[in-house]
Amino acid sequence: MAISKAQASLLFLAHHGYVKRLAVRQAPLHGICDDIVQQVFIEFTEKAEQWDVGEDVRPLLAGITKKVVLSYWRDHARHNRPDVLLKIAERLRTLGENDPPPEQHDKEIRALRLCLDEIPIKHRRLIDLYYFEQLTTQEIASMIKKEISTVHRTLCRIRSKLRSCIRYKLSQGGGDE
Prior knowledge:
By secondary structure, the chain is mostly helical. It has 9 helices and no strands. The chain starts with a helix and ends in a 6-residue tail after the last helix.
């Protein structure tokens, strides 16, 4: 269903925190996160009539955010320290080109699901809070009454274990069903 600019603005505001967290994670420099979020808002609302928004607008916002990050670095690289920034911009541009083919992606998702079933419930809860509910490590730490650094280290260990598990499952054909 296509939406109006006013509806797009409200929809964006409802997902502002999500876009901000994406910008923080994807932006190579801290000082540009707000610029990225503002540009995503502008692009999302300007093309509101074109968007066929289903139940979840997050994939669309994530795509726009990635495009804005790439665009920002291309423009920025032309004006500031071209040697270093051009390398960064080129790296960001190639990120999209190195995405796995859809069938490989599906296998990886199946392997991830199998691996998630194998980890302890408390670790699955942290994954849910961080990735699906989009809470920050600070918010999670206050929720579970742990130090921020503890939550951060735990998430890093979980990610590392999941990566290893996914690689193992894929090597064993565990992603095929």
